[in-house]
Structures are given as structure tokens and as C-alpha cells.
Design goal:
By secondary structure, this protein is mainly β. It has one domain. The chain has 1 helix and 8 strands, in the order E-E-E-H-E-E-E-E-E. It has a 4-stranded antiparallel beta sheet with strand order 2-1-8-7, with no helix packed on it. Strands 3-4 form a two-stranded antiparallel sheet. Strand 1 and strand 2 form a beta hairpin. The two termini are 16 Å apart.
Length: 128
């Protein structure tokens, strides 16, 4: 079951060393207890905070530090470079004029990392 992602959602990058928490700014959004995300919530640092350190050799700072350490992988501080919206986005729910982000969506970092949702920041209660 797809669950809408909102502020406080826990994310992880495949090249990061620590999880991070999504920040959704409230203007023009569906707001319940917390603002829910749409596919345009991919701005580095503003929406997507760093994931601790980066281990991708595509990241120039990691490549330089690794080279200086004679080839020993040397993680460097993470600064996400997300240049495109969340994919695929919800096919059924629009939020602020854009597709909503659900827990199955992914976000690509320019350094090769894939950012995915670990916890959507809210839960669904099914009463039987």
C-alpha cells in the first residue's frame, strides 16, 4: 500500500552513511498534521538534508580525498545534488498541482546515489 510522504519522513541515500529527514515547506500544500510532499520537493539542503558523509567516487571531494589517501576510500561530508524530481510520483494523488510523493518513490543524486524513503513520516491505521 502506498503511503503519502510528509515532513519528518526518514530517507537514506545508497552512498550516504546516515539517514536524513525530509523537510516539506508548507506553501500551497495539503496540510494535515504535517505538510505532505510532492514531486517538486527535491531541493538540496532545503528539502533534502545531508546524509552524514558521502562514499561515492563520483563525488569530486570523495574522489580527491581517496586519491590523497593512496586509493583508500575516504568518505567526505555529504551535500546532496538532486537535480530532478522524485520519481515516479503518485499516479492517483496530486498535491499542490504536482504528483504526490509516496513511500515507493525514489530520488536520484547527481553523484550516483539513490535516495529512498525508509519511513513516510506518518502511519495508516486500519480499523477492522
Amino acid at each position: 500500500m502506498a503511503i503519502a510522504v510528509c515532513t519528518g519522513a526518514t530517507m537514506m541515500c545508497s552512498f550516504g552513511v546516515a539517514p536524513s529527514t525530509l523537510v516539506v515547506l508548507p506553501p500551497k500544500r495539503v496540510i494535515t498534521k504535517t505538510p505532505s510532499a510532492n514531486s517538486s520537493d527535491f531541493i538540496p539542503v532545503a528539502n533534502i538534508p545531508p546524509f552524514g558523509a558521502c562514499t561515492s567516487l563520483s563525488n569530486p571531494t570523495v574522489a580527491a580525498a581517496t586519491s590523497a589517501a593512496l586509493g583508500v576510500l575516504t568518505p567526505m561530508p555529504c551535500v546532496p545534488v538532486t537535480a530532478a524530481p522524485w520519481v515516479p510520483g503518485s499516479t492517483k494523488v496530486m498535491n499542490g498541482g504536482m504528483p504526490a510523493v509516496d513511500n515507493s518513490c525514489k530520488l536520484m543524486c547527481s553523484w550516483g546515489g539513490v535516495i529512498q524513503v525508509l519511513n513516510p513520516g506518518q502511519t495508516v491505521v486500519i480499523v477492522g
